[in-house]
């Protein structure tokens, strides 16, 4: 029997006005915004509905904003009759959205947690010290070896941070080491290497201080058994147990996001239909590059919501 997985986006999918269609469509979305503002103690809605792109780009605002819009999308979909998924998978921050959907985390706990996570990530490395770059077309093993070589040469960190899809890998680390990697990426077969506009070297060992602080916060929060399995970023394995999920969240902040391996895991589990819940279409594009046969829908606004609803309810 073919199964369904819902996928939840991470940083980079945000834009001013995201979620506005949901707020117009359903009181449920407005209630969720009220909940977010109450949990955070400031107006999140003002930041992502009316604020500036520069403000929204700040990690500690980006993360709660994307989480809120993704949970809006999921809850409105379920209310409209979409089936509860067989699995969920989030990309980096999106893992927290998936955990709210699977009832592992309460929404107010999750929103406070990702706000702090953003702060911890921002404060782990002084501004201007770290960098990230997307590397296209490289051989993964050769790229990993090149990272190790440059790290030794410079006595700095440069590591694989995201394995997104065939031919798309992100590296992270010290600015000079990442710059050197960008210059030499063709040695690993890369067609191009593009520096990314990010505020820090995420998913690298430079995030170790953030992992320690996140562990302290996670220890204060109750995690429940997942209503459906979450495929973890750090292992690409389905998890339901709260203690395993807690460990995965702590590790995830300084380890690579194994997105491609996670999608391949879902394909092995007979998942045929994927629905991206939240802003943007980044994950939909990656999934199609991993498996052209996959059925991919999105819930981002009124148009995509209606299209996904028609397609999903027709087959369920």
Overview of the structural elements:
The protein has 316 residues and is of the alpha/beta class. The chain contains 14 helices and ten strands. Strand 7 and strand 8 form a beta hairpin. The protein is globular and about 55 Å long. It is an enzyme of class 2 (transferase). Its EC number is 2.3.1.39.
Q: pLDDT below 50 for ≥5 consecutive residues: which ranges?
A: none
Q: How many domains, as an integer?
A: 2
Helix content: 40-55%
CATH topology of the largest domain: Malonyl-Coenzyme A Acyl Carrier Protein, domain 2
Major beta sheet summary: 4 strands, parallel
Classify the secondary structure makeup into a structural class.
Answer: alpha/beta
Number of strands: 10
Tally of helical segments: 14
What is the ordering of alpha helices and beta strands?
A: EHHHHHEHHEHEEHEHEEHHEHEH
N-C termini distance: 11 Å
Radius of gyration: 19 Å
Q: What coarse outline follows from CA principal-axis ratios?
A: globular
Q: Order of strands across the biggest sheet?
A: 2-1-9-10
Determine and state the CATH class of the largest domain.
Alpha Beta
Percentage of β-strand residues: 15-25%
CATH architecture descriptor of the largest domain: 3-Layer(aba) Sandwich
CATH homologous superfamily placement of the largest domain:
Malonyl-Coenzyme A Acyl Carrier Protein, domain 2
Mean pLDDT equals 96
Topology:
Layout: E1 3-8, H1 20-25, H2 27-40, H3 44-50, H4 53-56, H5 59-79, E2 87-90, H6 94-101, H7 107-124, E3 130-136, H8 140-154, E4 158-165, E5 168-174, H9 175-184, E6 192-195, H10 208-218, E7 230-231, E8 238-239, H11 242-252, H12 259-268, E9 271-277, H13 282-290, E10 295-299, H14 302-315
Parallel strand pairs: 1-2, 1-9, 9-10
Antiparallel strand pairs: 3-5, 3-6, 4-5, 7-8
């Amino acid at each position: 029997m073919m199964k369904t997985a819902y996928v939840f986006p991470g940083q980079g999918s945000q834009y001013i006005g995201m979620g506005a269609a949901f707020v117009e469509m359903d009181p449920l979305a407005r209630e969720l915004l009220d909940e977010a503002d109450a949990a955070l103690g400031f107006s999140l809605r003002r930041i992502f509905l009316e604020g500036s792109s520069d403000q929204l780009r700040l990690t500690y605002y980006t993360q709660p904003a994307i989480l809120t819009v993704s949970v809006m999308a999921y809850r409105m979909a379920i209310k409209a009759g979409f089936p509860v998924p067989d699995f969920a998978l989030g990309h980096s921050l999106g893992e927290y959205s998936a955990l709210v959907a699977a009832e592992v985390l309460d929404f107010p706990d999750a929103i406070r947690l990702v706000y702090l996570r953003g702060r911890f990530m921002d404060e782990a490395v002084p501004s201007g010290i770290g960098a990230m770059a997307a590397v296209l077309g490289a051989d993964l093993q050769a790229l990993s070896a090149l990272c190790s070589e440059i790290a030794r040469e410079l006595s700095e960190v440069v590591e694989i941070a995201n394995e997104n899809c065939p031919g798309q890998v992100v590296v992270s680390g010290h600015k000079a080491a990442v710059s050197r990697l960008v210059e030499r990426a063709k040695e690993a077969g890369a067609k191009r290497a593009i520096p990314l506009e990010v505020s820090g070297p995420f998913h690298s060992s430079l995030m170790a201080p953030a992992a320690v602080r996140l562990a302290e916060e996670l220890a204060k929060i109750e995690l429940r058994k997942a209503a459906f399995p979450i495929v973890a970023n750090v292992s690409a394995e389905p998890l339901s147990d709260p203690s395993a999920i807690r460990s995965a969240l702590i590790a995830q902040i300084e380890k690579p996001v194994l997105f491609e391996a996670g999608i391949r895991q879902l394909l092995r589990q007979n998942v045929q239909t994927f629905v991206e819940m939240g802003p943007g279409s980044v994950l939909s594009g990656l999934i199609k590059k991993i498996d052209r046969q996959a059925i991919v829908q999105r819930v981002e606004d009124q148009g995509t919501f209606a299209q996904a609803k028609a397609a999903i309810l027709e087959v369920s």
